[in-house]
């Protein structure tokens, strides 16, 4: 008997390119058939055949409260009853901006957009206008969205699919993009000695989430802040993933760094599409209609999205003491997987920070084998070693213990080969 999941997958491949609307969802990296998800509740998702999975993907990071949080759902219903979209400024935009500014005090003004890609694109455009310089420096394996000029040596789906850069991007588009190795001060200084007066901004993720979890180098981040000030370049923190992930606010604050611009997304939308750029007045006021840096979007500041974000941030503020529990669960899970791998004589590396973790096997084949076992037994992790996994406020100790048990079983099977 053909399952409903299989029927839908066949239809998806008939009407959608590759059966997906984002490449990593295809499960190409592990060579398995992808699952299709009908619904989610708390820490669980359910496919169209009714099978339950403990979810560590969480829509690739936004769902820090878990799926279908009742307060978020109720507030969304109330907002939708007033209208889905106006294309004009609404109170929800003001209220979400207030919540973000309250949490991240170095922000003067905010511009809401519809995705992380748009947020970074806007920040780069602002930095070029402010400094009157064209070049942008990013770091190897960092993914900042699918803007043409930032796809050079990027992570995320490009790394998963082993694509060095995308077809369809003219070489001229990346001529002003400089790529440096993260954490290498000598290489960074050499680049600035050569191009310093032409570099408008340095773009960095404070904690990498698109080449697996890349642990923060706080001293290097502080070095970037000092060096960019010296050369009058702007420092842009891409906190699409990390904003509100490690506490009520930004990673920048936790690390004691004040970037010139910050890009936010994912969590601030409460599970709906969003992006935002924030910074000081002297930079942000270059945006139209105050000045001539153009940016626009039909759905920017959508009232329903804004309400999801407002409700989520209010819950996070009220329950901010619970972040510590997330970190403890992440550490407990990660260390137990490491120990299980050691006992099974299976070589893997697990990176974790806060409530993020990633797993990379020395032998890629073993990742696929472990993944298949986990999936068959109701645990859903990112279908690529180059993507981050997340733990939400809705995950329980029981979820974590079941996941550890299944990892241990899968690693023992691999170790017996």
Strand order of the largest sheet: 4-10-9-8-7-5-6
Percentage of residues in strands: 15-25%
Number of separate helices: 13
The biggest sheet amounts to: 7 strands, mixed
Structural class by helix and strand composition: alpha/beta
Q: If you compute it from the alpha carbons, what radius of gyration comes out, rounded to the nearest whole angstrom?
A: 21 Å
Point out poorly predicted stretches. Answer: 159-163
H/E topology pattern: HEEEHHEHEHEHEHEHEEHHHEEHEEH
The end-to-end distance, rounded to whole angstroms, is 33 Å
The dominant shape is globular
Tally of DSSP β-strands: 14
The helix fraction, in percent, is: 25-40%
Average residue pLDDT: 94
Task: Describe this entry's structure for a reader.
The protein is of the alpha/beta class and about 425 residues long. Helices cover about 40% and strands about 15% of the residues. It is built from 13 helices and 14 strands. The protein has helices at about 5-15, 70-80, 90-105, 115-130, 155-160, 185-195, 220-230, 250-255, 280-285, 305-320, 325-345, 365-375, 395-415; strands spanning about 35-40, 45, 50-55, 110-115, 135-140, 175-180, 200-205, 235-240, 260-265, 275-280, 350-355, 355-360, 380, 390. The strands form 3 sheets. A 7-stranded mixed β-sheet has the order 4-10-9-8-7-5-6, sandwiched between helices. The protein has a 4-stranded mixed β-sheet with strand order 1-2-3-13. It has a 3-stranded antiparallel β-sheet with strand order 11-12-14. α3 runs parallel beside α10 (about 305-320), α11 packs parallel to α13 and α12 crosses α13 (about 395-415). The longest helix is centred in the last third of the chain and has 21 residues, at about 325-345. It is globular, with a radius of gyration of 21 Å. The two termini are about 35 Å apart. About 45% of the residues are buried.
